[in-house]
Amino acid sequence: MMRSVLVRSGVFAVLLAVMGIQVAAQSAVETPAPTPAAGVGAPIVPSRLDVVKSLESQFPMPEQPYTPIPPARPGMGVPSVLGLLVGAGAFVGTASLCGKQEITGAGPYGSFVNGTYVAPGAVLPVAANGGCTAGSAAGAALATTFLVRTVRLSGYKKDVAQYEKDQQMYPVQKAAFDRAVAQRQQSIDSAATVVIAEAERKVREYREAELARLAAAAPRGGPAPEPAYVPSILPPKTGLVNPDAVAVVIGNKSYARGEVPPVDYAVRDAEAMRQFLVQTFGFREENIIFERNASYSTMQRIFGSERDFKGQLYNYMDPAKPSDVFVFYSGHGAPDPGSGTAYLVPSDADPQSIGLTGFPVKQIYNNLAQLPASSITVVMDACFSGLTDRGSLLRGISPLTLRVENPVLATANSVVLTASRSTEVSGWYDQEQHGLFTYTFLDQIKKTFANGVPDSVPSAKALADQVTPEVVRMSRRIRQREQTPQLFGAGVDTPLPFIKKP
Q1: Would you kindly state where each structural domain of the chain is located, as residue ranges?
Q2: Do residues 230 and 440 lie in contact, with contact meaning Cβ atoms separated by under 8 Å?
Q3: What is the pLDDT of residue 113?
Q4: What is the pTM of this model?
Q5: Is 454 strand, coil or helix?
Q6: H or E element, residue 102
Q7: Read out DSSP for 357-405?
Q8: What letter would DSSP give residue 121?
Q9: Cα(458)–Cα(452) distance, rounded to whole angstroms?
């Protein structure tokens, strides 16, 4: 019986799988693509995890067989108790049969009974025979115990026979269940692939139409505007609120000098990070300093100079309410060949004169340390080897021989997380159109906060322990090279300080 149910369940699951794939594909094909209009109604590519979760309800789980449980051999407890109860009743009930009676003296002069004189009209109680009464009670108790024991053993033997049958059938039932589960998962994966492929097609069409629209609207001979941001990873909404937090988010994609290759996904990295700061961590939009293709003067305006740390970031803060500060940068980094000092590469920098035109990372750290901040978090998707996916930024230099300084904030509650070691290249994740490090970092944030804020807020080290091996694995797979994110700072082991629970 169980086997037939499982077989029918497996067939039903397969039919549902085929129907689900057809429905998903049909709904995906029939949904009209949105009209490009500067990012309004832009399609998105949902994560595979979200698609799989949404499809699971369409593919019910097959009925799982129960593991046979051996029957317990009946003990003597119940028969013994019942025997004692029946024996006690027999002891009371058989007293009259064993001689218990009352004798009244007869005749005008009384009478003798068993040598005892009984006066006229007097009553003489005669006790029952003790041996007879005890024997009757014991016999009833033993008979009851034996009968109950026999009945229970008979039921136990039937249970054992059924258990042996179930035990023989269970491997067959379990194998059928496992096949049905595997078929269900395969069906869900196939349907998810169809849905995601269709979503990616819509995004590609949208981007092509958007680029064409922007190219047509661009002035003749000038660069086309940046296309509207179409996210490939969606931030989870947690309900967190951090009204005093301040952030700087910079994406340097395009550079003025032709020999500097663009960082294709830097602006997309910055856009994604801004969305996560607002929707996941509760930063206010107006408290985020957002810059595309920041020049040297823009960076100095934001972070201050070597002589004056009070830049725009400082002015966004309230000294009476120490703020959480979050800084994100995606773009080129470069080393000074002479000193090994690390620099961010502004959009107007000359890599051959990086010591004069680059923005020192150490200056950023020094100025951040002087802010009235309750915590400082810095995340950089940049490498400082001087290498890029399209060659070297520095002519006549072997970047792999350099040892770049990694200044570390010494203030409390400070964290610095960078995309790679100083001699490595920070690669791209073309499939998701993001920096590999940025995408992996945001994806881990999404997984951590997918169901709201966890009871135990993770530390930067806990996040890095998840992000680092995934970046290493993916970089080897898609770029055939090493990329190892680095974590520094005095606050790496404390819960993320910018997470403010309600």
Answers
A1: 2-69+166-214, 246-488
A2: no
A3: 62
A4: 0.59
A5: coil
A6: strand 101-104
A7: HSEEHHHHHHHHHTS-EEEEEEEEE--SSSEETTEESSTT--GGG----
A8: T
A9: 13
Domain 246-488 CATH class label: alpha beta
Task: Please give the pLDDT value at position 326.
Answer: 96
> Which residue, 276, 280, 273, is CA-closest to 240?
280
Alpha helices by DSSP H, 221-306: 266-279, 296-303
Amino acid 1: pLDDT: 40
Q: How far apart are CA 94 and CA 443, in angstroms?
A: 84
User: Kind of pairing, strands 246-251 and 323-330?
Assistant: parallel
CA–CA separation, 104 and 114 (whole Å)? 13
Low-confidence ranges of the chain (pLDDT < 70): 1-42, 45, 47, 95-97, 99-130, 211, 214-215, 217-228, 338-340, 385-410
Quick check: 120 and 113 in contact, CB under 8 A? no
- Per the CB < 8 A criterion, the answer to whether 330 and 291 are in contact is no
Alpha carbon distances (Å) from 378 to 223, 391, 448? 31, 27, 19
Phi/psi of residue 249, each to 5°? -125, 120
- The confidence score (pLDDT) of residue 451 equals 83
Tokens standing for 325? Answer: 């500060």
Please, is 80 exposed, middle or buried when counting C-beta atoms within 10 Å of its C-beta (0-12, 13-18, 19+)?
A: middle
Helix (H, G, I), strand (E, B) or coil at 481: coil
| Nearest-angstrom CA–CA distance, 95 and 298 | 112
Cα-Cα-Cα-Cα torsion 285, 291, 292, 297, nearest 10 degrees, comes to 170
- Of 460, 467, 462, 458, the residue nearest 485 (C-alpha): 467
Question: Tokens 């998962």 correspond to what residue?
Answer: 185
Which element (helix H / strand E) includes 143?
Answer: helix 130-217
Of 441, 39, 52, 427, nearest to 233 (Cα)? 441
- Are residues 427 and 404 in contact, defined by beta-carbon separation less than 8 angstroms? no
Q: Strand, coil or helix: what is 440? A: helix
> How many angstroms separate the CA atoms of 263 and 334, rounded?
13
pLDDT at position 20 is 45
- Tokens for 282? 């509760």
Distance CA(324)–CA(413), nearest Å, equals: 9
